[in-house]
């Protein structure tokens, strides 16, 4: 993945090239971020949604371990650096206009992803009555 990290090109002004071309041209938003969704590679379960800036994306591509940009802390964040829940990249899927990624990962430590201790940040569902329920309950 190191080669990809060294060649992060600017988005193309040609929509066809951006949407159908073979060149990775991540399209960061006005804040310099793109959306990243981490998915468990073995189960397909959604683990978390976070954001990456150019530095986080480059670090992820260089190391094979997922890095994000923490909006609350305003800095680079290597997932699992303190918890042991390192996310190792298995595959990165890029959406049509290259402004969002799905990152298929394996997770170290206890296999969790959420700061609450839950395996996934998506541990609640919106019930028919408008309340939040835990699907496993």
UniProtKB/TrEMBL annotation:
Keywords: Amino-acid biosynthesis, Cytoplasm, Histidine biosynthesis, Hydrolase, Magnesium, Metal-binding, Zinc. Signal peptide: none annotated. One of its GO terms (molecular function) is phosphoribosyl-AMP cyclohydrolase activity. Transmembrane segments: none annotated. It catalyses: 1-(5-phospho-beta-D-ribosyl)-5'-AMP + H2O = 1-(5-phospho-beta-D-ribosyl)-5-[(5-phospho-beta-D-ribosylamino)methylideneamino]imidazole-4-carboxamide; 1-(5-phospho-beta-D-ribosyl)-ATP + H2O = 1-(5-phospho-beta-D-ribosyl)-5'-AMP + diphosphate + H(+). It is found in: Cytoplasm. Catalyzes the hydrolysis of the adenine ring of phosphoribosyl-AMP. InterPro entries: PRA-CH, PRib_AMP_CycHydrolase_dom, PRib_AMP_CycHydrolase_sf. Pathway: Amino-acid biosynthesis; L-histidine biosynthesis; L-histidine from 5-phospho-alpha-D-ribose 1-diphosphate: step 3/9; Amino-acid biosynthesis; L-histidine biosynthesis; L-histidine from 5-phospho-alpha-D-ribose 1-diphosphate: step 2/9. Mg(2+) binds at residues 95, 97, 99. It is an enzyme of class 3 (hydrolase). In the N-terminal section; belongs to the PRA-CH family. Belongs to the PRA-CH family. Its EC number is 3.5.4.19. Homodimer. Binds 1 zinc ion per subunit. Binds 1 Mg(2+) ion per subunit. Its cofactor is Zn(2+); Mg(2+). This is Phosphoribosyl-AMP cyclohydrolase. Residues 1-20 are annotated as: Disordered. Its main location: cytoplasm. It comes from Acuticoccus sediminis. The keyword Magnesium applies. GO terms for biological process: L-histidine biosynthetic process. One of its GO terms (cellular component) is cytoplasm. The keyword Zinc applies. Zn(2+) binds at residues 96, 114, 121. Residues 48-123 form the Phosphoribosyl-AMP cyclohydrolase domain.
